[in-house]
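INFO  loader      accepted 1 record
INFO  loader      residues=311
INFO  predictor   begin
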Amino acid sequence: MSLTGPDIRNLCLAALAFAICALLPFGDDGYWLGLGVTIAMFTALATSWALFSGPTHYISLATAAFFGLGTYVTGLGIDTLPFWSLVGIAGVTGAVLAALVGLATLRLSGVYFVIFTLGLAELVRQVITWVQNNSGQKGLYVLTDLDEAGIYWWLLGLAAVVFLAGWLIGRSRLGFALRIIGDDETVAAHSGINTARAKVLLFMVPGAVAAMTGAILAPRYVYIEPSLAFAPILSFQVVIMALLGGASRLWGPVLGVIPFTFLLEAVSSNFPNQTTLVIGVAFLVIVYLLPGGFVGLLDRIKRRITARGAL
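INFO  predictor   done
INFO  writer      dumping tokens
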């Protein structure tokens, strides 16, 4: 793969942006660092979600299932294995689960896939709850010396890897195949593309990333239990942020993550019981006012400016 001038420029700008973001813990170790952890978490989750759902148009609500699985990998192994190895194990576990789910469901389409992924988190939560009830254990303590700054750098590094992976996939045959699948899956199949294999391969990416994100964030919770680790609202937040920013571009979800994180922070501080209402309103805004997210809005503005210039 040869790099063009714009490619090198974009890679340098992305590296510079991540380097600047990495300096945040040196400037603040309180509120803003906590907000930075949240933004880094949702950036990794929403961007990896858009890598699969953007080109294929499959709406996955399975993020909470993979995330919770990752937190339990850390909770179960933190006393015996080094933290970095648990993050890797969580990624492999999430990818394997995503492959199994993909093999079982990605031949489905539309609402059937959405319903299955929504039920997956609840299924895994109920299984873990049943196991814990039978073992007499209600939750897991995750006690490490990893502080907020360490968690932030781990998440920022994961987000950088997600962006690099997305950039490489977008220039690969897999990315090209998925764009054809998104346009018309029947045509893609008649063109000789193994649509099921392509979808399963890419579905493993958000599965692995969500599990690794959960593994990294587990020490922040200190104590994890199924209702916290597999909270369904996480899946909806990730979808809303990705769609609000725009899932058609690699950098699109970030445009939704940052403002929506600040909005959720303001609402949860002043109206702690209205967070779900905000998600509902945001969904209506996306459907009726921003169907392509902020990326679509910017594209429309650019086309109008170009059209006026041509007159």
